[in-house]
């Protein structure tokens, strides 16, 4: 039997349709993520480095223990992948003269197979650099301060002494070096050496030969209460002011003449007697420098002058000691150091922000160990090139430059 259904009025239809849409909307809302938000928004105060507000504070003293935690949570494979572009670098940086593959294809430019360099006058270059070197392309290089060893040098090396005003054909080439921030040619040299890549020969401060007689004992235990090491005995106003600002926010030991808070010079040996080079000799601050630094998680390194490519031993001492440098200096410093190895103080908005970061990092063994991963995983990056352009390799690189010019046979006046 057919039912006689009454037609539905428009009000009833609208009510049923609205109810259906409400059910569908609730289903979508409670079963699917929002289509307008791709990730959970993070409050601005937490959107910066996690180290500034770490979820758990884990103060540590044992560096090797921190390394083990990092190995378990991160590991070298992940670190290498993160810095994959630096594992094998095949380009030449504008900040460094030495690059992969550079030099071997230039053997044909050499005009001499042996070069003798005589170092003249007073210079800070150590005597232990004197040697007979076997260089690339079969070139031998004699570097010496003795005129007896090389009575007819192909080049004469000057640093603090001005080279001769005139050079005649048959005279040795004049080499002048200035590694100070305001490097300046003498005006009388044939070859100019400085820390900058655009000069004739570059010499970075990353070498080890000029301080190879120090106590390099490194402590596996890091101070947890006193975080920062600083030592400076040249109290420049600008550097002192900067150091005072940051050190006022961090627990530290200052051993030099500037802002000393240890009661005198050479007090590091009172704290760390194992750092004495020779117990029977009068202590010198440079003898125990690296060993003392190694007891601290951080070393403050401030250059005398903020100049492009002027990256001095202040930074490399800290790296050699196994500490993390807090650095203020050259704007292109990252061209000279390993990946993730230093804290560039200029990248922070304020000293307070920098201090908060350092304190948090000191209480996070995994994050702190990440700053040491480059040396443990063999990811040197630019640092390999920096060492290759250092004072350690200067004799061979200078001898190559002299050979390319022909040494004493180069045209003079």
From TrEMBL:
InterPro entries assigned: Alpha-1_3/4-FUT_pln, Glyco_tran_10_C, Glyco_trans_10, GT10-like_C_sf
GO biological process, one term: Lewis a epitope biosynthetic process
Pathway named in the protein's UniProt entry: Protein modification; protein glycosylation
Keyword Transcription recorded: no
Topological category with respect to the lipid bilayer: Single-pass type II membrane protein
The keyword Membrane appears for this protein: yes
GO MF annotation terms: alpha-(1->3)-fucosyltransferase activity
Major location (coarse): Golgi
Domain of life: Eukaryota
Ranges annotated as spanning the membrane: 12-30
Any GO CC annotation of this UniProt entry: Golgi cisterna membrane
Compartments, as annotated in UniProt: Golgi apparatus, Golgi stack membrane
The protein's enzyme class: transferase
Documented EC number(s): 2.4.1.-
Fucosyltransferase C-terminal domain span: 224-405
Keywords for this protein: Glycosyltransferase, Golgi apparatus, Membrane, Transferase, Transmembrane, Transmembrane helix
Similarity-based family: Belongs to the glycosyltransferase 10 family.
Protein name: Fucosyltransferase
């Amino acid at each position: 039997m057919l039912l006689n259904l009454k037609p539905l009025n428009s009000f009833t239809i609208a009510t049923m349709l609205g109810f259906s849409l409400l059910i569908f909307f609730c289903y979508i809302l409670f079963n699917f993520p929002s289509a307008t938000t791709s990730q959970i928004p993070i409050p601005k105060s937490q959107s910066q480095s996690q180290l500034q507000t770490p979820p758990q504070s884990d103060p540590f003293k044992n560096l090797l223990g921190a390394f083990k935690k990092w190995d378990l949570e991160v590991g070298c494979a992940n670190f290498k992948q993160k810095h994959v572009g630096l594992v094998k670098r095949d380009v030449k940086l504008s900040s460094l003269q030495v690059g992969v593959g550079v030099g071997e294809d230039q053997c044909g430019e050499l005009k001499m197979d042996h070069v003798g360099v005589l170092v003249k006058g007073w210079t800070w270059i150590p005597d232990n650099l004197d040697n007979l070197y076997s260089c690339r392309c079969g070139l031998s290089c004699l570097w010496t301060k003795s005129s007896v060893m090389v009575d007819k040098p192909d080049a004469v090396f000057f640093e603090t002494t001005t080279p001769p005003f005139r050079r005649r054909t048959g005279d040795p080439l004049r080499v002048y070096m200035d590694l100070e921030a305001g490097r300046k040619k003498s005006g009388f040299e044939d070859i100019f050496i400085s820390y900058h890549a655009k000069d004739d020969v570059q010499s970075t401060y990353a070498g080890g030969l000029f301080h190879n007689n120090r106590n390099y004992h490194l402590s596996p235990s890091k101070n947890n209460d006193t975080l920062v090491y600083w030592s400076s005995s040249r109290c420049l106003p600008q550097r002192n002011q900067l150091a005072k600002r940051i050190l006022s926010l961090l627990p530290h030991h200052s051993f030099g003449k500037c802002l000393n808070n240890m009661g005198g010079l050479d007090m590091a040996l009172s704290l760390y007697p194992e750092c004495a080079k020779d117990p029977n000799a009068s202590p010198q601050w440079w003898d125990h420098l690296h060993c003392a630094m190694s007891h601290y998680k951080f070393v403050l390194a401030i250059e005398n002058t903020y100049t492009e490519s002027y990256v001095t031993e202040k930074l490399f001492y800290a790296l050699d000691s196994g500490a993390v440098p807090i650095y203020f200096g050259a704007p292109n410093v990252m061209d000279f150091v390993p990946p993730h190895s230093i804290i560039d103080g200029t990248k922070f908005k304020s000293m307070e922000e920098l201090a908060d970061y350092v304190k948090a990092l000191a209480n996070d063994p995994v994050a702190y160990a990440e700053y040491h991963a480059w040396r443990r995983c063999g990811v040197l990056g630019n640092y390999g090139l920096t060492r290759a352009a250092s004072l350690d390799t200067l004799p061979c690189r200078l001898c190559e430059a002299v050979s390319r010019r022909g040494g004493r046979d180069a045209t003079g006046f």
